[in-house]
Design brief:
Strand order of the largest sheet: 6-5-4-7-8-9-10-11-12
Transmembrane segments: 20-38
CATH class of the largest domain: Alpha Beta
Shape: elongated
Number of domains: 2
Domain POTRA: 41-109
Subcellular location: Membrane
Keywords: Cell cycle, Cell division, Cell membrane, Membrane, Transmembrane, Transmembrane helix
Number of strands: 12
InterPro entries: Cell_div_FtsQ/DivIB_C, FtsQ_DivIB, POTRA, POTRA_FtsQ_type
């Protein structure tokens, strides 16, 4: 092959490569434009999972402006911030189910307690967040917290920052939500976390500190011991002391 032929071959090859590069750029550009402009990639539906307390319609109404927007350009962080503005919600995860559907998984705070200020009841999650101001407790299965102050905090703010106190509230949450009417805890005194007290009807319960409140492996927790005693004995007034290792002390008063 002479030099002229080699030159023509290289020139032809460069033209082919150039055409391929240009074609690739055109295809990629067209694909991007299609993805960002085609109606099939517009958000048509928003689904929620994990809702137990929050009003889903209110959430849907708050996000209706995102319907019709391109699913690839929607600002997930902005959506999360909008949803997290609801004090009942503590965590939000968003993912695409298809070209036109957003799935939003939320995790709610567990509302089980309240602090009373005058005639106002302030609903609190077991993480210590003040989530709602109530005028009545009717229809609510909430436990009064004694020894906690709101310190002028507003809805959405954290009233209880202490980690040990949050641990205590989390430990009592399952029994509160089980809502066994005759064994319902009415008040929880956490004025001194080394001397926690609970009240069920006329029975005062001395829990001591926050150690072993709940069952660990096969060892019954203090709460389990108290419930077992109350289920076996008809105690209307008195006290149960489970603040120490060993058999609980039970005093029944007439």
């Amino acid at each position: 092959m002479n030099k002229a032929q080699e030159f023509r071959r290289l020139k032809k090859r460069k033209k082919i490569i150039k055409r391929l590069v240009i074609s690739s750029i055109i295809i990629v550009t067209a694909s991007i434009v299609f993805i960002y402009k085609a109606p099939i990639f517009n958000v048509k539906q928003i689904n929620f999972t994990g809702i137990t307390t929050v009003n889903e319609k209110e959430l849907q109404d708050g996000l209706k402006d995102y319907l019709g927007k391109n699913i690839f350009t929607v600002d997930y962080k902005e959506i999360q911030e909008k949803i997290l503005a609801n004090p009942y919600i503590k965590e939000v995860k968003i993912n695409k189910k298809s070209n036109a559907i957003l799935n939003i998984s939320i995790k709610e705070g567990k509302v089980a307690y309240y602090i009373q200020t005058g005639e106002i009841y302030k609903a609190i999650t077991n993480d210590g967040f003040y989530v709602e101001q109530l005028k009545t407790l009717e229809g609510r299965n909430l436990v009064s917290i004694i020894g906690a102050k709101d310190n002028g905090k507003e809805v959405g703010q954290k009233i209880i920052d202490d980690e040990n106190t949050s641990k205590i509230l989390n430990a009592f949450h399952p029994i509160i939500k089980s809502n066994i009417s005759e064994l319902r805890i009415e008040r929880l005194d956490i004025s001194d976390i080394l001397n926690i007290k609970g009240y069920i009807k006329g029975v005062e319960i001395l829990f001591g500190d926050d150690e072993d409140l709940v069952r660990k492996n096969d060892k019954a927790g203090k709460i389990d011991k108290v419930l077992s005693i109350l289920e076996q004995k008809n105690i209307q007034k008195g006290y149960i002391d489970v603040s120490f290792d060993g058999p609980p002390v039970v005093k029944i008063e007439s």
